[in-house]
Structures are given as structure tokens and as C-alpha cells.
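Page 47, continued from p. 46.
Same chain as before, 240 aa.
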Amino acid sequence: MSVTLSALYTTIRLEIQDEAQTGVTPEFTDAQLDTFITRAVERYSRLAPHVMRENINTVAYQDAYAVNANAFSVRKVEWRPSAGSVLPYNADPFWFNDWQDDALIVVRNQLIRNYDNIGRTSWAEINYSSSFMGGRYVRLFPCPTDANQKVDVWYNAPHPLNAGSTGYDTIPSMDIDSVAQFAIAIILRRRARTLLALPDQTVGQSNRVGSDPARTLEGLARYYEERAINSLSSPVATRS
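Result:
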């Protein structure tokens, strides 16, 4: 089962008391909720990503290969050369093979030097995601010398809206509350900013009202975010 936009509309409106009752115009249109939901799905995807795979053909003496523009981290790289290859046991970094931290890049370079020192007969890969030359790339170390070798790149990406724009087929229905809670947190912060912008007519335009209510809304936003994060961090059987 997937998560539909109509179900998200209902869940969000019930929670923020924005039900479309007879004779009552909702505060938010479906189009406005779509904007909040898109941002909520991006947040959800960081915790429960949509895993994608694409195939890359090597180019002789080229080490950098662009991956999908939607990828926010590289998960795994698999190389299947015709002659076979054996990677050192410590060649794969931890945490989705993601070398974005400067300290980890130093570790990566040391691994390469260590591996070079013991000798090898075929190239191996140690990968990381980066943003340079206008996009995201995976690097293969050392540079492949043969062309048209098949490399599978697995990466984490946001969950896509389906072709019919009716929902998210890759998000399980059990996670609808988590997506809705992220969207509600966004809405509450929007309301908080609106309150902070209101002038206090009784004491002059330079003063603002709503700071206390805004702090309350910010606290509620954090509460909804924590509920979503805790749910996604729990074993599947206990999610609610």
C-alpha cells in the first residue's frame, strides 16, 4: 500500500483542525498542502530514503562519474569487471559509503595508500558523493584503465510523486502519519512566523505581538517532528 495525497490531506487537516466542513472554507487549499507535503517528503526521505540504482559504463582513465541529480548520498558501488576483482576488507567506508566529511576523506586517502603499499593487480573502488563541476559524482580509485566496464551505483533519493500525481507509491501506507507530522511541523512554523510579523497597534508599529504564541507553535512543531523521527527510528512492527 502507498501513501495518497487525498489521505495526507485528510490526516493533516484533521490534526490542525482545518476540516472542510459544510459552509467552512479550509485555511489551506490542496495546492498549498501539496507544497508542504513536498517538503515533508524530502525530510522523510532523509530518514527513509528511496533507494535507486543506475548503471555506469567506465571510460578509460576517467575516475569521476556523474550520478542522478536527485541523489543526496551514494549508498553502494558495485563493479563487475570481466576479470573479477577483490577489494581489501577495509576498502568500503561506513555509513552508506558516504565520504562527505573532510576527516573521512583523509581516511579514504590513507586507505588508498595502504592498499597501494601492499600491491594489487586490479583497480578497486572507494567512493564518496560530492558536489563539484556542477553536480554529484562518484569517484573510482584508482582510475579504471578499461572502457565499458559495468558499474552499478546505488544511491539514496527523495521519494517521487507518481505519474498520476495522486501520491507516493514508494512510501508505505504505514508511514503516512510520519509524513503528515513533518508537514504539520512546517505549517506550525509558518503560523509562528505570521504571528511574529503582526504589529501591536496599541503601543506602536515597532513592537510585535505573538512572540509567546509563536514559541508555543515552535514547541509544537518540534513535538511533531520528534514523533515522526521516533516512529521512523522504531522497528517496523511497532510503527504507528
